Amino acid sequence: MKKIGGMAGAMLLSLYAGASSAAWQLNLTTGATKSTQVIYDLHNLMMWIILVIFVGVFGVMFYSVYAHRKSVGHKADQFHENTTVELIWTIVPFFILIAMAWPATKALIDLRDTSNPDMTVKVTGYQWKWGYDYLKGEGEGISFVSQLSTPQAQIYGTETKGENYLLETDRHLVVPVGKKIRVLTTASDVIHAWNVPAFGVKQDAIPGFVRDTWFRAEKEGIYRGQCAELCGKDHGFMPIVVEVVSAEKFSAWTGEQKKAMAAAADDPDKKWELADLKARGEKVYAANCVACHQANGQGIKGTFPALDGGKITTGPVKGHIDQVLNGKAGTAMAAFGKQLSDTEIAAVVTYERNSWGNKTGTVVQPSDVKAARK
Amino acid sequence: MSNATPTHNYYLPEPAAYPVIGSVGILLLLGGFAMWFNEVALGPWSSLAGLLVLIYMMVLWFGKVIGESEAGLYTKRVDVSYRWSMSWFIFSEVMFFAGFFGALFYARLYSVPELSSIDHKLLWPDFSPTWPSAGPGAEANFTPMGAWGVPAINTLLLLTSGVTLTISHFGLLANNRGKLILWLGLTILLGITFLGFQAYEYSHAYSELNLKLTSGIYGTTFYMLTGFHGFHVTIGTIMLIVIWFRCLKGHFRPDHHFAFEGVAWYWHFVDVVWLFLFIFVYWF
Amino acid sequence: MSAALDTHGKAHDGHDDHGDHGHHTPTGFMRWVTTTNHKDIGTMYLWFSFAMFLFGGAMAMIIRAELFQPGMQIVTPEFFNSMTTYHGLVMVFGAIMPAFVGFANWQIPMMIGAPDMAFPRMNNWSFWLLPPAAILLVASFLVPGGGAGVGWTMYAPLTTQMGPGMDLTIFAVHILGMSSIMGSINIITTILNLRAPGMTLMKMPLFVWTWLITAYLLVASMPVLAGAVTMTLTDRHFGTSFFNAAGGGDPVLYQHIFWFFGHPEVYIIAIPAFGVVSQVIPAFSRKPLFGYASMVYATSSIAILSFMVWAHHMYVVGMPVAGQLYFMYATMLIAVPTGVKVFNWVATMWKGSLTFETPMLFALGFLFLFTLGGFTGLVLAMTVVDVQLQDTYYVVAHFHYVMVAGALFSAFAGVYFWFPKWTGKMYDETLGKWHFWLSIIFFNVTFFVQHFLGLAGMPRRIPDYALQFTEFNQISSIGAFGFGLSQVFFLYIIIKAIRSGEKAPQLPWDGADTLEWTHLPTPAPYHTFENPPTVK
Ligand code: HEA
Ligand code: HEA
Ligand code: CUA
Ligand SMILES: [Cu+2]
Fold first, then answer.
1. What's the CA gap between C435 and C428, in Å, rounded?
2. What count of other Cβ atoms lies within 10 Å of the Cβ of residue C55?
3. Contact B214/C16, CB-based, under 8 Å?
């Protein structure tokens, strides 16, 4: 009996969860879109129906436990079937289910409608970061990669954890408020899932395929989510941060981005010096390669090869460039050709060939990479 | 049998070591494969050892079963057990093939068309969904396998083998040993010819059509389905050969020959699977 | 007691090959290796599964210890992923399934009046295939790269990135599949062909029925899983493109094939548990099972429906809306036959004469918590709600309710219930009750709070989490340690009972009325029913 009380209490409590603090959140979020509200309401409706059935069924059971005990001298009846009763409890649940299916169907059909978006963004899952490309609408052409910005020191406990521990990224996906955003998901290596609970959005990102979903955020603010499909080692460390801003702010942001992108574009024909290239390469390495090959170039034994003294990193340059450009099929080593520019690849290859114990002295120029692309 | 109650006297074998020998064999075989596929030198040897142990186990075990059967230990009820178990075993095989056929249908009806849909132009701008397909990431420079050459002949061979097997069964039922042995022998020959043609087809595909296991989804499904089927034909042929030798030794009676029938069921099953293969892999 | 008790009466039977050859029956270790006796084999299954349960449980403890607080403390992310993977695989394939096969081996021949299983040697092989599979699974931790960190569902294409551990795991799954298929064929054949005269199908104890249906599910679904992992293997090593878009394949294809096996699999786990509970509840209610026929039909409907709902695990892979709707409706439909079963159990208790020994307590725990897990399943079945909950701890909570409080509790009920029949000893009732109360309390502490974590959006299969999830995770971890220790306590209860338990009376449960209780002595002799009883 107590258990039922507890259950009911917990469920009732959960109805007020929207108001409670994040740490003790007991129910779904009401979120920032109409979809989340629909889902929230549907879930609550389900909980009420279930609660009633639960109390009904187990009310009977516990009454029986209480009243039909042998220890109080109850003698067993010997009845063992009753067609009417059995028919009733087959048919009634069926109708209850229809009552649930009705709103669920309506909600589903509404929520899956991705037509007529104001803006389209392509989201690409990489091990273990997200790439964003603004495809259509304002901001078209903007493209960047976003990854976890929580420092390792916080993860490994040598520093206190910040407020948004694990839910913070170096770049935010910025979108305007009140606009219908269509999100195309895909991936470059394994399946990931783009998931922002506050928008009621979760969509697998499948390598080689394109899937879509949408949201229309009603409130400005910063919303956070995480990759929701096991994608290997750092699956737990690829958050999503979406910043919903006003239309004006969004325009300003897109302007800035375009300028920054133009400024950052490298001259592909520039001839680089070893030191500059190595410095640049270190950054590229830190952003793209450390997760597997580690900062000290030692990799992780058995899973990710050491680049320090590796066969390829100290062997012919061609093979090295090829490995980075095209990856190695069937392993975690992805093809970086599409993610990184010629300059970046040249830089990271140069860096790897001249760091740790590697002392090849080779300088790889962007033009070499360009040549290798064909 | 004089027993009043039917389950009485159900033959219960004494303790036997075959199972555990088989387990050791399996462990060596599959553990060996795992090493082999990862370039551990011991791998092939372990696999070979495992295979030999398994063969040893089967020879012993089946030999024992045959001995028991010939010694008259198997009552009608044991016979019924064998019938049930063989039927369910074949059902499990049907489900196994269903998985691979499922993959074929899925690729043809779903993933290949999907990969060329509007949204997917983003990733694969110039892929067109024709079957046979090697997928959008590779050039389709192979020639698909036509239906009306070797595969059609093979269909005929297998269908005929089903008939010859049935004739030999009639021979057995009529206690006509000569007929039994002759037609069963013919069935075996047809099976072996089938396998020979299939081997020829594979080498032709590799050397002239450039059709390989790695030729995208078409090559994948083609080789996996025909390969698994060929493997089953091989097993079936071996079983037929064993049965043939047993016939030569004078085993089986018109009213007691489940081993023969079980093999025949299996052979017909392999036949039917081939028909599906012929239609969906080669023809359409 | 009838003449059937005279199990050695067969010595004058010339046809009977068994035992009367003056054959040296192997003793010691070789007895277990070579045995063809269903009771020996059942015992081995049960001990094996318990060992695997401890192994899988120890991995769960590592998971919960790492999740005790945010940050990485104990293990690396890769190792964590492999813990999740092998915890799931070992619990499902190593612990729960073999446990129920153990029950099947012990009980089915006794319950239908058969002398043994239909194929005793193959029966032994079904068991002895498990150790090689376990060896391969354990070996995968020891090879370079360690165990595969892909989840028990082994989704492509992550599997193509793994080291040799993945291959070992794939082969282990192949062996487990062989074992299950052979075991199932044996069970089906035994049930269909070796029933005592008069034991019609509709007179069989419900446990036997549930195993007939489960065996069918196994034969139909295990080969499909074997196919799926075989495709994974060839994609890994032979350049095939089943799950590779560039070659025209599709990673989602793997999921379809896996779940075509995977959903029936969860009923493979649940249905024998229903069977055990359907024996226990009537026995302690001293009343026949209510609605026997409708139980049979309901279980069969569940089995059939289970092949038609698989994509409810895949609502977010991007199916067409029509597909989502179909799978939502079909999934919800399973609530009807499952509901029939729940109602029948409650009706069996109604106006009974109830007592609450340990088996009954576990059966009631099952009933209460399994239903709760079923309800959360229904919540997940709603496509739009599942979009929020898929791959969160809500799912983890759901399936531990149905598999731990469901299947595992039912297995505990079965062990306590049949323990006297198997060993002739009684367990300590007080300790048994302690085991129950500790289990049910710690179970809820562990898993109830996971619903909240899931609703708040905590993803599953992560080694580290954001700060707002800390409190519930700590509660859950504490519960898990308590639950784990309670199971060590269970081991103690069993060993104590075997070594120094009181002698069990002939009929320890006065409500039990199946053949093993009414027609056989306690403990059951090594060979039973070589002369079949006649069932009225
Ligand atoms: C024993 C195992 C078992 C059982 C019995 C079930 C039973 C059910 N499961 Fe569960 N499930 C799992 C094991 C199991 N499940 C596992 C292991 C996973 C996760 C796999 C993974 O991803 O790793 C999973 C995941 C899972 C999902 C996917 C979640 C996700 O990943 O997003 C869904 C979605 O539909 C689901 C639904 C259901 C439903 C509807 C039932 C129904 O059968 C429940 C029916 C029962 C009841 C409803 C209660 C009793 C009924 C009544 C009292 C009648 C009256 C009621 C009404 C009319 C409402 N399950
Ligand atoms: C029937 C199957 C079954 C059973 C019985 C269990 C039992 C338990 N499970 Fe498991 N679980 C699964 C099936 C099962 N699980 C599956 C299929 C998954 C999904 C995997 C995936 O995502 O791929 C999963 C995933 C899973 C997760 C999510 C992991 C993740 O997403 O990363 C968690 C986390 O809390 C968990 C916890 C537990 C706990 C605490 C127990 C406890 O009940 C275990 C209790 C038993 C013991 C503890 C053993 C006895 C004690 C000892 C050996 C001594 C040591 C004890 C101490 C030090 C206290 N399980
Ligand atoms: Cu990306 Cu999980
Ligand atoms: Cu399911």
1. 11
2. 18
3. no
Check: CATH 3.90.1640.10 for A274-373? no
Q: Quick check: CB of A227 below 6 Å from ligand 3?
A: yes
Buried b (16+ CB within 10 A) or exposed e, C484-499: bebbeebeebbeebee
The domain in which residue C397 lies consists of 39-518
Write down the domain spans for chain A.
Answer: 34-68+83-111, 119-264, 274-373
Q: Is C237 in the active site?
A: no
Q: CB-hemisphere CA count at 13 Å for C486?
A: 22
Query: In this structure, are residues B174 and B255 in contact, taking their beta carbons and an 8 Å threshold?
Result: no
* Pairwise CA distance, residues A37 & B221, whole Å: 45
Q: Looking at the partner chain, which of B30, B31, B220 has a beta carbon nearest the beta carbon of C249?
A: B220
Is residue C500 flagged as an active site residue? no
Q: What is the mean pLDDT of residues C143-154?
A: 91
B127 token code pair:
């892929």
Q: Which atom of ligand 3 is nearest to the CA of A125?
A: 1
Q: How many CB atoms lie within 10 A of CB B6?
A: 18
CA dihedral (C374, C376, C379, C380) positive or negative: negative
C20 Cβ partners below 8 Å, 6+ apart? C10, C11, C13
Segments in C15-163 forming alpha helices (H): 28-34, 38-66, 77-89, 97-112, 120-128, 130-142
Token pair in block for residue A333:
């080593």
Please give the angle made by the CA atoms of A179, A185 and A189, to the nearest 5 degrees: 155
CATH number of the domain bearing residue C244: 1.20.210.10
Give how many domains chain C has, as a whole number.
Answer: 1
What does each C-alpha distance from A349 to A283, A346, C203 come to in angstroms? 12, 5, 75
Measured distance CA(C310)–CA(C259) in Å, rounded: 5
Selected catalytic residue, list C312, C398, C425, C435: C312
Give chains near A: 3+ CB pairs under 8 A. Answer: B, C
Query: CA C217 to CA C109: how far, in whole Å?
Result: 20
* Tokens encoding A267: 């001259």
From C38, C64, C87, C451, active-site residue:
C87
Measured at the CA of C413, the angle between CA C411 and CA C415, to 5 degrees, comes to 70
Domain A119-264 adopts which CATH fold? Answer: Immunoglobulin-like (2.60.40)
When pLDDT is averaged across residues A106-133 and rounded to a whole number, the result is 92
Whether residue C31 is contained in a domain is answered as: no
Q: Are strands A181-187 and A119-126 parallel, antiparallel or unpaired?
A: parallel
Q: Do C77 and A203 touch (CB under 8 A)?
A: no
Same fold, A119-264 and A274-373: no
The tokens of B167 are what?
Answer: 């004739």
Asked whether residue C533 is assigned to any structural domain, the reply reads no
Given the structure tokens 């290949």, which residue do they identify? Answer: B112
Among the ranges given (A265-269, B253-257, C167-171, C400-404), the one the predictor scored with the smallest mean pLDDT: A265-269
Q: In the block, which residue shows the tokens 């992108």? A: A261
- Are C388 and A163 a contacting pair at CB < 8 A? no
pLDDT in tens, C242-279: 999 988 999 999 999 999 999 999 999 999 999 999 99
Is residue C2 scored above 50 in pLDDT? no
Q: What is the pLDDT of residues A274-330, one digit of tens each?
A: 888 888 888 888 888 888 888 888 888 777 888 888 888 888 888 888 888 888 876
Asked whether residue C30 is assigned to any structural domain, the reply reads: no
Ligand 3 centroid – CA A237 distance (Å): 8
β-pairing verdict for A129-136 and A211-215: unpaired
CA of C398 to the centre of ligand 2 (A): 13
Residue A238 in contact with ligand 3 by CB distance below 6 A: yes
Q: Has residue C18 been placed in a domain?
A: no
User: Active site residue: C341, C400, C425, C435, which one?
Assistant: C341
pTM of the model: 0.91
Which residues of chain C are within 8 Å of residue B10 when distances are taken between CB atoms?
A: 114-116, 194
What is the spatial distance between Cα C47 and Cα C51, in angstroms, rounded to a whole number? 6
